[in-house]
Amino acid sequence: MDFNHTGEQAALADSVRRFCDDNIDLASHRRDGRSPSDTRLWRQIADLGWLGAGLSEEEGGFGGGPVESAIIAEAFGRSLAVEPYVSSAVLSVRTLLASGGSAASLIESIVSGERTVALACCEPEGRGDPSHVSARAERKGGGYRLSGRKSLVLGGANADFHLVSARTSGDVRDDDGVTLFRIERAHPGLRRQDYRLVDRRMACDLWLDDLEVGADAVVGEPDQASGAIREGVDHGIAAICADSLGAMDRALWITRDYLKTRKQFGQTLSSFQALQHRMADMLVELELSRSMLYAALAALALGADKRSRGVSAAKAVIGKAGIFIGQQAIQLHGGIGMTEEYAVGHYYKRLLANASLFGSIDAHIERYAALSGGEPASVLF
Amino acid sequence: MDFTIDPAIHDFRRMVRSFIQENLPEEMRRRGERDFDSKESDVRGWMRILNARGWATPNWPEACGGVNWSPLQKFVFQQELRRARAPVLDRVGTDLIGPVLCEFGTDAQRARFLPRIQNGEDWWGQGFSEPDAGSDLASLKTRADLVGDAYVVNGQKIWTTCAQYAQWIFALVRTDFSAKPQKGISFLLIDATSPGVTRRPIESIDGGFTLNEVFFDNVEVPIENLVGEAGKGWDYAKFLLTHERTSSAEAPHTQRDIEQLKLLASNAIKGGRPLLEDPVFRSKVAALEIDVIALEWAVLRILHADPDDPSLNSVASILKMRGNVQRQIVAELAAEALGDYGIAMFLDPDDPDVRAEDHLAPPLEGEAVGVSARAIFRRATSIYGGAAEVQRNIIAKQILGL
Fold first, then answer.
1. Which of A378, B190, B301, B306 has the fewest Cβ atoms within 10 angstroms?
2. Is the ipTM of this complex over 0.85?
C-alpha cells in the first residue's frame, strides 16, 4: 500500500492541471451549453493520451488504471471542465471492457478521441440505479426491435454512439435478461432530447421508438450485461467522486482566500472564530472524502459485491461532504457567492450534480447496507 | 499510488486472532463484552500476557521495545484486540508517557519505567488539566520549586483518568514564573505514593469513578525525575498530544462497537421484525459504518505517511474530531436499539467505587449491559485530549492559515 503518487502519476497530475489552467476558465465554462465539448480541446486531450491513461496496455491504454483516471477526473473537477471524459473514457470504456468478447474492439477509436460514446443505462424510475431496466428488446428476424426510454445519459448529447441497456427477458429489476446494444447517434428510431444539468454539463434522454438493429449491435453476451454495466458504473462513480474531490478542494481554498481579504467591522473575515470553525469543519469533510476516494479506488480491484459496497460508501460520503462544502463556500462568501460570474456557485452546482448522478446519497447508503450483511465496517476485510 | 493489499496481511490477522483466542482468559473476555472501563486487574493481567509475547507496545520505537510491524499490521493488531473484547490497555502508559520517555527520557528513566509499563506493573496518571487550566492549558499554576536536589511541588490537577490506580503521575508544572506562559513549564514524573499527594475520585454523570482530582502539598520530586530540560515541558506535551496521531481516532474501537450495535439491533424486535431490518434504523447504522470506513482510510493514510512530516500533527486534529463524534453516535444508537432499556441505568458491578445501593440493574445480559451508561459517558470524548473547539482552532490556524 502506497499513498504517494509515483513519478509518472505526479507528472500526469501536474500536466492535466496545467492544461486545465491554461485552457479552461469560467468564461469558457459559461459559453452556450449546447456544444460544451470543445472539439479542439477534446482533440488535444486525446493527443496527450489521457483518454487511455486510465487503462492498462492489455486493456488498450497506456499502462495506467483507476488511479490515473481519478487523477484526470480530479483535475477536471477542479477546473469545472465539461469535457465528456468520465462518460466516454471511464463509464463507457469500463463497461465495454467488462462486457468481454468483441466489445473491446470499440475501445481503440474511443481512446484515440476519434469517437465519443455515452452509456445509456438509466431510466426515470430507477433514479440513477442502472439495475432498473424496463426498456425492451424483442427478437425480430435476425436482430432486435427496441422500445422504451433511457434517461440522464451523461455526455449523451454529443456522443457519436450510445451503449443502451434493454431487457431481452425477465422482469424490471432482474439481474438476468439485460442486453447492451451499440446504437449510432443518427440511427433511425432513436429520438434524443438534449438538456443541461445544473452545472452546465450536457445530458440527454433517449426514446427508442421501435428501433431496429441487427444482432451485431449486441455488446457482450445477450441477457448477461448487468454485471458489466454495474462494473462500468462503479468505475464511473469512482471517477465522479474524484471529480468532486477536485471541486471541493478548489471551493474550499477559494473561500479561505476570500476570508483573508474581505473586511467587515474593520477586520478581515478570517479573524472571526465562527467562520474559522466552519472552515475547519469543511476541511475535515474534505480530508475524509479524500480518504474515502482511496478506499473506493482500492475497492475497484475487489470482487463485485465488495467493489460495489466500497464504491457506494464513497459515493455517500463524498456526495454529502461535497454538498456541505459547496453550500458553506457560498455562505461564507455572502452575496458575491450567489453571482453567476463568481466561481464558488459553480462548484456548488457541480457538487450537487455529482452527488445525484447514478443514485442519491440515501440510495447508496441503502445499497451499502444491502451488500454489507454481517460483514465488518471495513472496505478491506 | 497503489492500494492493493498484500495478501499476507490476512495471514497476519489470522495469526494475531488465534493468539488472542488462545490466550485471552474467558472471564476477561466476558467482562470486555460489557465495555465498561476494563477492570484494573484485567488490564494488568492482559498486559503481562501480551508482554510475554513481545506485543505489549508495538507502537514504540523498536529500540524501546516496539515491534517491527508495518503500519497496517499495527492497525490490524488493534482491530483484533477490540474485536476479541480484550481489556482496553492503560493508554496513558502505552500511548502517552511511553513514547515521550522513548524520545526525551534519559537512559536511566527508560530503563526504570518502560519495562514496568509494558508488564502492566505501573499505571500512569496524566497531570495536565487544572481547575483553571482546561483548554487554556498554558495558564496552569501548579508550581515546582527547585530546593537542593529536589523539586517541591504544590498545586492541583483535575480529570486525571484512573489516578486511583496509578503508581506514577506525569505532570506539567511551572518552574519559571518570569518566562512567557509556555516557556516556564517543565515535565515531571511524580511518584503517586509520595507524601503530600492526595487523590480524590470524581463521580461522573454515568455513575463511574474514572476521573480524579489530585492535590500536591509540598511533594518532593527528585531532580532525576525531570524529563528533558527544565522549561521545555510544553514541547514534550505537544509531542505527546500529537505523537499518537491516529490512536485518538479510535477507529478499531468504533468498529467493534458497530459489531455490537448490529448484534443488539438484530436481537431487538420492532413491530414483529428485527430492528436492524427497519429501514430507518438500518440506514442510520449504515451511514455510521460508512463514515467509519472514511476514518479508517484517513488513519491508513497517516500510518503510511512519512512520520517526520510536521503537517501530520494537525491532521491528528481531523482524526480526533471525527473519531470522537463517531464514538458518541455509535453509543447513542446502541442505547436506542435497546428501546425502553436504553434509558435504564446499569452501573459497573465490578467498580469498587460504586455504592452498594446503586447495584440495581435492569434485566439485561451480555452485550446489552452498560450500554446506556456508556452513551452518557461518551459525551466526554469531544472534551478530553483537547475539546473539539480547540481542535477546530488548530485546524484553522495550522492547516488553513486563518
1. B306
2. yes
